[in-house]
Amino acid sequence: MEKIRVGVIGCGSIAQHRHLPEYRMNKNVEIVALCDKNEERVHRVAEEYGAKPYTDYRELIESGTVDAVSVCTPNYLHAEISIYALNQGLHVLCEKPLATSREEAEAMIEAEKRSGKKLMIGHNQRFVSSHQKARELIKNGEIGRIFSFRTTFGHGGPAQWSVEGKESWFFKKDEAIIGAMGDLGVHKTDLLRYLLDEEFAEVGAFVEDHAKDYGDTDDNAVCVLKTKSGIIGTLAASWAYMGKEDNSTIIYGEKAILRLEEDPTYSLIVQYVNGETVNYQLGKIQTNEDGGQRSTGVIDAFIHCIVEDESSPVSGEEGLKSLSVVLAALESSRTKKISEI
């Protein structure tokens, strides 16, 4: 079988630490082209991977040398580049959030339908072993009806790991559009939708932007969410957790509590109402800290759906549903009212 020829657009931290190493590990992939507006950076990374460097994404997409691209750029370019690539007949893996507005997201979905190519959004929390096991337990009725949840994704912020530090696009409103809620909150809205297997109906949120003394994007948020069936819970997304990263989720059910990624040894702990506890060691979640899972599973899933001509495992529609919760939370914070989703 011929290898899938891949180009990566944007050579920042997410490309260097996730996409490129995982593409290189996949036997069905050949990395042929890289693009970044920073000429020094793209030449340096391209040399490491034996790829051709570009500074204009249009030239890479139009080169005829790639079958698929990863879009690892600032948020404001996700829709523009993804649509251009799809229109040129390329498969697209786009980092989350898929877009910065509903209109952009819908345009991406329409471009995918016209092109007949695959569009996948990089929501990697669906591929974490503990999350997949929890979804299985919930679906088979192991913990009964779900009453509530609590989920958190917080760390010290992109300044600690972005290639540009405090000068990163994450802190620039005109490039990020959405800050911590787009970086971390959308991970958790997608995870909750995946675990609970239902949609959210309402959100009330406090979203602040003064945890950092640099940048002008949101950096600290707490949301209260309600699903269509009436499950209620909280979601926190923050760049203000200056100690250890928190990427935990707790699901409160009729028969048991699921504790996900809360314990350093056991990635899933099930506490039953009869006092029994079951501990699962399922490998560590991917993290910006040392010791995290080596592969997110996203790249392998993307390449698999291309090779086998299967549906995208995280479609544009799924990405839009998860983004819609974030957009509603931002609206709630602005209006000081509960927002419908």
UniProtKB/TrEMBL annotation:
GO molecular function per UniProt: nucleotide binding; oxidoreductase activity
Pfam family, one: GFO_IDH_MocA
Keywords on record: Oxidoreductase
UniProt domain Gfo/Idh/MocA-like oxidoreductase N-terminal: residue ranges: 4-123
InterPro entries reported in the protein's UniProt record: Gfo/Idh/MocA-like_OxRdtase_N (IPR000683), Gfo/Idh/MocA_oxidrdct_glycsds (IPR050463), GFO_IDH_MocA-like_dom (IPR055170), Glc-Fru_OxRdtase_bac (IPR008354), NAD(P)-bd_dom_sf (IPR036291)
Domain GFO/IDH/MocA-like oxidoreductase: from-to ranges: 131-258
Highest taxon, organism lineage: Bacteria
UniProt cross-references to Gene3D superfamilies, sorted A to Z: Dihydrodipicolinate Reductase, domain 2, NAD(P)-binding Rossmann-like Domain
Name listed for the protein in its UniProt record: Dehydrogenase
Source species of the chain: Priestia filamentosa
Lineage: Bacteria, Bacillati, Bacillota, Bacilli, Bacillales
